[in-house]
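User: Please predict the structure of the protein below. I'd like the answer in C-alpha cell form so I can feed it into my own downstream comparison script.

Assistant: Understood. Taking the following sequence of 334 residues as input:
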Amino acid sequence: MFLRRSLLLVLLVLLGAGAALPWLARDWLAANSASASSSAPSGWRERIRGAWRGAESAEAAPDTLAVEETVEQTEERQPYPLAKQTRKMLAGFFGEKGDLPGAPSRPGPPSTPRSRAIVEEASRRLAPELAKRSLKCGDPLVLRLFKEEGELEIWMRPSSEPHYTLFKILRLAASAGRPGPKLREGDGQAPEGFYSVPASALRPGTKHHLGFDLGYPNELDRHLGRSGSEMMIHAGETAAGAYALSPAAMEEVYALADAALRAGQGAVPVHLFPFRLTDKRMDRVAAAGSRWTQEWANLKEGYDFFENVRLPPAVDAEAERYSFRISSDGEKEI
C-alpha cells in the first residue's frame, strides 16, 4: 500500500512539473534575453510623419551623447514563486544563455586565421575605451554614415540600457561620388539608404584588408531599377567599394560587428545618409530645389526616428519609398 501511494505521489508531481515546465522555461528564456523592450515616447509617430520644415528640434553636435529621457518605463513583472531557483535549475540543463538543446544555431561570421588575429587585437585595444562607457565587445551595434561630412558614427547598446549610445565617430578615408543615391553600376556613386549587414556579409579575405558588404541593391533599390555590386565599407585610401576607412579604424568597426553578430545580433543596421539631415539643412535643400529633395525627406524620417527614439527602426519598402516602424526582436533592415 505504501509503495503504491508513493508511486502515485511521484506520478502526480511529474505530471504537475510537466504541465508547468513550458511556462517556466518560456519565462526564464525571456528573462535571459539580451534585448530590452521599451515603449515609444508619446507623439513620436506624429513627430516623424510630420513635415520636417518648422520642426522644433535643433541641430545637435555630432559627438553629443546626452539623450533626453522620453521613453516611458514599463512596469516590472513580478517574478513567480521560486523564480530564481527555477532559473538556476534550467540553466543547469540548458546553459546560461537559455539555448535549448537541438535548437537551430545561426551561422557565425566567416573568418580566416589572419582576420581572427586582427579581431582579437582590435578587441583588446577597444576594451578600455568601451568600459568607460559601460560597453563591451558583443553589445548590439548600429552604424550611421554621413557622406558629405565624411564621418561614421558607431552606436552601441549597453546590456543594462534599453537605448543605443554613441560610442565614437570615425573619419572616412574616402567615399565615392557626391551627395545623391547610387543609380546604376559604374556611375561612381556610393549608396544612400537603409541597409543591414548579416554575418555572411563580412569579408575577412577582401583585397581591401577587411570589409563588409552593404547589401546594395536592397529591396527599394531593386524596385526603383537601381543596379550595382560589391558596395562595401572597407579599409583603404580609395573608395573603390563605396566607402573607405583607415585600416586601424576598419579593424575596430569590423571587430565590433564580428563580436555583435557572434553574440546573437541578427544583422548590423547601417544607415547611409548624404549629410546630417537636420531641419536647417533640409530647409536649404528645399530652397535650392534639389532633384533629391523628396528622397532625402524620406531618409530624414528614418534619421529622425533614430534621433528621437535612439533605437533603429524596422524598415520596409512601400510605394517607392521607405516606411519605418518600431522593430521587434530579430527584424532587419530591408
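That's the full C-alpha cell string. The chain has two domains: 1-38+80-105, 106-325.
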